Amino acid sequence: MSEIHKTAVRASVPPDMSLGARIVDGVLWRLGRVGVRVYPYVAVHEGVTSTTVPSLPAPLRAGWASEDDLDSLVALWNGYHNTTRERLERRFRSGNRCFAIWDGDTIPAATWCDLDTLSHEPEQRPLADHEVYLFDAYVSPAARGRNLAPIMRAACYEACRELGRTTMLSFTDYFNESSHRFKAKLGARRVALRVQVTLWGRWSKTFTLRRY
After folding, report:
1. C-alpha to C-alpha distance for 15 and 17, rounded to whole angstroms
2. What is the distance between the alpha carbons of residues 120 and 164, in angstroms, rounded to a whole number?
3. In a domain, 12, yes or no
4. Alpha helix ranges (H) inside 34-84
5. Which of 2, 72, 139, 175 has the smallest C-beta neighbourhood within 10 Å, fewest atoms?
6. Domain count, the chain
7. 3-class DSSP state of 49
8. In this structure, is residue 193 part of a structural domain?
9. What is the pTM of this model?
């Protein structure tokens, strides 16, 4: 199971979720409680079209983080989604890259990139040389309202392109409408609607419901 989706899937309910989506989400959550996990999600190609994003205001700076920044990264996530120092260390050791924004000595925002493996649990595979998998973006609650999320994401696109990674892959919970809008504003394109069905942890299958 992926690091991001280890639960029966209800990290949070987006505040703008429609009534119908809330009802369906509630039903799926209850099924998960009895061992039947149904996880609908959308596969996305990010940064497909160019968009205008504000530049990073001084004195903030952006770039690739390293293991030398672990203390700041641990402080950023601070247990979010059960993130621990050991988990972040494993990511670096496995070759994952972390793109971050610095405000002095602190990191108020960061996101992770896998250059080797599409490590989304429902559909894992090796990545081609031009591909990168983007996951686990996070902005500190204290830094929200500063427009850091789109600035960081756009800067991350450019950093990935400099590495030759021109196809940027990610996944979005089907019911997370705010995340869909956020990625669309950054030039993302939906690829497919898929659903993973897992029965009592013993059988799992992913189905494609729609191709866009």
Report:
1. 6
2. 21
3. no
4. 70-77
5. 2
6. 1
7. coil
8. yes
9. 0.84
With the CA atoms of 171, 173, 177 and 183 taken in that order, what torsion angle do they form, in degrees rounded to the nearest 10? -10
Give per-10-residue mean pLDDT for the chain (212 aa): 38 51 68 79 94 88 96 91 90 97 96 96 95 96 92 96 97 92 94 93 91 94
Given the structure tokens 């070759």, which residue do they identify? 95
CATH code at position 52: 3.40.630.30
**What distances in angstroms separate CA 140 from CA 174, 190, 198, 205, one per listed residue?**
24, 27, 32, 35
For residue 46, being part of any structural domain is answered with: yes
In the 8-state DSSP scheme, what is residue 54? Answer: P
What integer pLDDT is reported at residue 200 of this predicted model? 86
Is 6 within the bounds of a domain? no
Give residue 92's domain range. Answer: 19-211
Q: What's the longest Cα–Cα distance across the chain?
A: 51
* CA distance readout (Å), 175 to 17, 22, 25, 172: 7, 8, 7, 8
Tell me how far apart the alpha carbons of residues 71 and 67 are, in angstroms, rounded to a whole number. 9
Alpha helices in 65-190 (DSSP H): 70-77, 85-93, 148-162, 177-185
Determine the Cα–Cα distance for residues 18 and 88; give it in Å rounded to an integer: 35
Query: How far is Cα 26 from Cα 170, in angstroms, rounded to an integer?
Result: 24
Joined together, the tokens standing for residue 26 give 């509630």
Question: Which among 4, 30, 24, 65 is positioned nearest to 175, based on CA atoms?
Answer: 24
